[in-house]
Amino acid sequence: MDCQVIHSTEGRLRIRVPWIADNSEYTDKLNWLLESLNFVTSIRINPAARSLIVTYETHLVSETIAEAELLDRIQRFGNADGSTDLILPETKPLDRPQVNEWEQLGLPAVALGLALVAAPLEIPPLIIGAAIASAAVPWFSRATESLVVNRQPNVDLLDSLWMTFHTLNGQFVAPSLKTALVGVRRTLRGMSGEEKERQFQQLLNGSQQLVWVERDGQEQQIAYREVAVGDRVIVYPGDVIPVDGQILQGTALIDERHLTGEPQPVVATAGEDVCASARLLEGKLCIQAKRTGYNTRVGLAFQLLQAEPVYDTQIGTQQAEFAKSAVVPTIFLGASIFALTGTYGPAITPFQLDFGSGIQIAMPTAFLGALTAAARHGVYIRSGRVLELLAQVDTIVFDRTGTLTQGNAVVAVHTTDPSISPTEVLKLAATAEASLNHPVATAIVYAAETQGIQLLECETWDYFAGMGIACQIDGQEILVGGDRLLQQHHVDVSCLQPEIDASTDSYIYVAKNGQVIGAIFYTDFLRPESADIIATLQQLQIEIYVVTEDNPKVANAVATQLGMTPNCVHAHATSQNKAELVQALCHHGKTVAFVGDGINEAAALSFADVSISFASSSDIEAETADVVLLDRDLAGIVEAIALAKRAMEIVYQNAAIVIVPNLAVVTGGIFFGLNPIVNVVTNNFTAFLAEFFNSTRPLLRTRRTRETREQGAEELQVQRGDYQLPITNYQLPMMKKLAQVET
Question: What are the residue boundaries of the P-type ATPase A domain, all occurrences included (predicted)?
């Protein structure tokens, strides 16, 4: 995928560069290269989000030219491996001064000031008009560029005409107030975005640069970025937890407000999960790191904030298309009103209808707020379009193994003849399955290792998705798989039929040189929450289907355990069957989500409208699923759907907040001559309300129960060496006393 612009505002471009990596030399060179362009004022590169932000001088270059020049230079510069055909400047240019957001309000402020004192000071209209025109240059530039480059009018043309006609009519306050209020909104938006990025970066890096870890039985300090998955991290009172992980030892009071928004501290004890950015108020914890850096919840939220993946939504596209198509009819409407009334005050009033700016800005704000909130609560949703589809999901297909089940199967070996050792059967099966990262394969290999069985080597190895493995071990032809695999190879399995008929467990056969030598029965128990989650989703009027590679008897047992009808649980499901089921549901107009581990479900995941999987500890952003559950808890699906529906509610509320009042004042301007200042104030106030208030409301609460917190607070004991301090009523941390004891 080539680099591309993923977001643009006046004087600012955010460019996605897939090959940006944590390569400081490459980053410095790319930074120097782009800063050498005379119109560029600053460059900020974020390797983790694989993007960069460029600010540029709008009076020197148009957005189209700036975008084309930057993309051309980045493409010619080459990949992060250092391959480039472009000569870099020998010296780095002088650092440019930081752009002061408030300085951009200079011209609008001057224009508004002159307009307010024009009458008492008898300022010549030409001067005031020139000031307003200077402040309105961005509108004129965008309108002209759209007409010349894109050969179509845009909403900026309506704004430009509105300001021009009012200025020519001697109504200076309304157009100058418009430039000032829009400038204030843009400035506050930029400052808010920068502040959010700064806060996330601070939380991501931790308040301390050094972290205590336990290695080889000794506590030692290492750099924050050197902490690895599996490390035992020690956290003391006042420290920020630097990783997502599970508490191994200790009980503590922690503050999670920066992550979940929950204002009250919570009690955390051994066995519970904690997340990076939470601050320890009391106690001492030993935490095993599961995710570090940009793979933590706060790290993923920061990457979403940087990448802003919210401009691919269908509702956004529809709004943009409507705004474009409404420009010409609005101009004709104004012309018609002028022809009927002979006055252009009411005639140009429709030009101020907020077709674009308020909704166009408030919608992405709501989507981005929802995406970052989801990441902080343990659900990584890849983009605004995925969030939009998630709110529409009416059918979910679950793969049983490793998704509805715990993924730690218990195995038992049956042989076809007493002369055949169960150890031999297990050794052959484990050798064949060792290359697979599947819950059943993992369980078989683990059982072999537990018994001290030394695995062999496969001379040849073929995997048949959803059926099993055919391989050669020590010159012997080995088959490890289900009924269909052995039927394909014409192997008789009737000798094990009595054991299979008597069992409700799942099983796979092991055959050698065309003869069955045994079967491995395995039980992968359902997750404790599976039945409740299925019931909750059904209460939300969502159809549920389960697919399994097991036989119908096991499938019926699963249906009973989950409280589902047998016709909704599909047995003997191959990868192709799963994909066909998803395609059939989509063909019938369903919005389908598929939940699977991605091993045998690649096709089904790709055909589903929304693909959902559990996270590994590796690079979560690189995983292919649309929705990644950071915790291995199916409750994340319910929360993700609830959050998506709530986010869409806010989007529609934003549209109503902007459209209804603006339509009212425009109607008042046409029929009752309402002062255009009222129009301007209403337009900007509603946009401000939608963007800065309604779009930023909390969407989720922490999953930790209030009962746990209240009960644990009375029982919590802080242990530092031999000292114990009971905590009651969530008092502020007694840091001085603890420090004295430690000393």
Answer: 208-305
- For residue 256, what are its two tokens? 């999670």
Closest CA to 605 of 595, 616, 618: 595
The helix/strand/coil state of 394 is coil
The model's pLDDT over 19-62, given as tens digits with 9 standing for 90+, comes to 675 566 667 667 777 776 767 877 877 665 677 888 887 766 77
Going from the C-alpha of 51 to that of each of 6, 94, 380, 693, the distances in angstroms are 9, 23, 19, 28
Q: Report residue 122 as tokens.
A: 């008898």
Strand, coil or helix: 584:
helix
Taking residue 332's Cβ as centre, other Cβ atoms within 10 Å add up to 11
User: In sequence order, which residues have a C-beta less than 8 Å from that of residue 167 and are 6 or more positions away?
Assistant: 128, 129, 132, 133, 175
Band of pLDDT at residue 305, cut at 50, 70 and 90: confident
In terms of DSSP H, where are the helices of 342-438? 344-348, 357-376, 384-392, 422-433
| Alpha carbon distance 171, 159 (integer Å) | 15
- Residue given tokens 């046409």 in the structure block: 670
Query: What is the pLDDT at residue 193?
Result: 67
- Sequence-distant (≥ 6) Cβ neighbours of residue 60 within 8 angstroms: 38, 39
List, as one string, the DSSP characters of 518-564: EEEEEE-PBPTTHHHHHHHHHHTT-EEEEE-SS-HHHHHHHHHHHT-
In three state form, how does the secondary structure of 19-64 look? CCCCCHHHHHHHHHHHHCCCCEEEEEEECCCCEEEEEECCCCCCHH
Cα→Cα distances 668→125, 177, 489, 655, 663, Å: 28, 19, 81, 20, 9
Angle at 579 between CA 574 and CA 585, to 5 degrees: 125
User: What is the spatial distance between Cα 613 and Cα 623, in angstroms, rounded to a whole number?
Assistant: 9
Cα separation of 324 and 355, whole Å? 9
d(CA 404, CA 642): 20
Contacts of 486 (CB under 8 A, 6+ apart): 479, 493, 509, 511, 516
In angstroms, the first-to-last Cα distance of the chain is 57
Closest CA to 290 of 249, 246, 239, 247: 246
Angle at which helices 357-376 and 384-392 cross, to 10°: 80
Residue type, 691: E
Structure tokens at 2: 């080539």
For range 214-219, the mean pLDDT: 84
Question: Strand, coil or helix: what is 68?
Answer: helix
- Coil/strand/helix, residue 412: strand
Residue type, 231: D
Q: How far apart are CA 8 and CA 70, in angstroms?
A: 13
Q: What is the pLDDT of residues 405-435, one digit of tens each?
A: 887 778 889 888 888 899 999 999 999 998 8
Query: What is the DSSP pairing of strand 569-570 with strand 592-595?
Result: unpaired
Q: Give me the residue label for tokens 């032809």.
A: 477
Residue 318: half-sphere exposure toward Cβ, Cα within 13 Å: 6
**Model confidence, pTM:** 0.72
State the CB neighbour count (10 A cutoff) for residue 153: 17
Instruction: Kindly report the backbone phi and psi dihedral angles of residue 653, in degrees, each rounded to the nearest multiple of 5, phi listed first.
Output: -65, -40
The 3-state secondary structure of 590-630 reads CCEEEECCCCCCHHHHHHCCEEEEECCCCCHHHCCCCEEEC
